[in-house]
Amino acid sequence: MSKTIIALDFPSGEMALKFLDQFTSPIYVKMGMELVYAEGFELIDEIKSRGHQIFLDLKLHDIPNTVKNGMKSLARKNVDIVNLHASGGIEMMRQAMQGLKEGSNGTRPLCIAITQLTSTSKEVMNNEILIDGEVEDVVIQYAKNAKEAGLDGVVCSVHEAKKIHEACGDDFLTVTPGIRLASDSADDQSRIATPNLAKDQGCDYIVVGRSITKSENPVETFEYIENIMRG
Ligand code: C5P
């Protein structure tokens, strides 16, 4: 299965499925709030029936009991990865894992924590969110918290992946958005990197949205990126 997860950031299921029609082999896709809020969970079954794997990116963040029960429901949705915000704390993450275990019959989805969004710069983190220090230090502490809570990995930027593997072990997953080809614009992302750097830094998966979905030939661009990741 691919190491490049394509973010299906489309406003409708019809557009997402039309995009997927171009791919003849199964790939890994990410369904986020835009698509799920528009289409509901039924679209998951349609995408799974085509053989694709799904990272359901709903970024849960609430009191521990609510997140636990939310995860219990998500565990039955036949997806491969779910996620939450590490800023909800260790107990919230522990309860999330408990919910996933209780909700799944057999294999549970992997659960990964958002550390700091790749759109968040040091200035925003320091001056608006009022967390002092370097983004990297916060990201690594959040990764350690996620590991302590029993999660499978984190979402982080490419720039933090190596240090997270050093701190949390090589089998602790690093899933990295904020990927741009050298020729792309940054859009709203802040801590960006190329697929080559992601490969060098040992990222387990990269999440790529606009660089693939808005490219002239999405399948070719996907294959180009995937070949880099496979090294
Ligand atoms: O188009 P682009 O490649 O920037 O899309 C990145 C995707 O990854 C978006 O769906 C965004 O929600 C998601 N994401 C992110 N940063 C995080 C977590 C998720 O960009 N920290």
Please characterize this protein's 3D structure:
- The structure is a single chain.
- This protein has 231 residues and is of the alpha/beta class.
- It has one domain (4-230): Aldolase class I (TIM Barrel).
- 44% of the residues lie in helices and 16% in strands.
- The protein is built from 11 helices and 8 strands.
- It has helices spanning 13-20, 33-39, 42-49, 64-74, 90-103, 122-127, 135-148, 158-168, 195-200, 210-213, 218-230; strands spanning 4-7, 28-32, 53-60, 81-85, 110-114, 153-155, 173-176, 205-208.
- An 8-stranded parallel beta barrel has the order 1-2-3-4-5-6-7-8, surrounded by 7 helices.
- The chain is globular, with a radius of gyration of 17 Å.
- The protein starts with a strand and ends with a helix.
- The relative contact order is 0.14.
- The model has no long low-confidence stretch (mean pLDDT 96).
- Cytidine-5'-monophosphate binds next to strand 8 and helix 10.
